[in-house]
Amino acid sequence: MELKQFAQNFKEKYPDLKVDEFIDDWSYQDEHGEVFEQTDITYSISNLPGLNDLTLSLEGASEFKTLDSILSKGTYLFKDYLGGKFGNDEVQVVLSLLSKSTLGLRSLGKPIDVTINYQGDQVKVSIEPQFAPQKGPKSEIFFIAKKLEGFRIQRAMATAKLIGFKNISPALLENDIKNIGGVNNFV
Question: Is the pTM above the cut of 0.85?
Answer without folding.
Answer: no
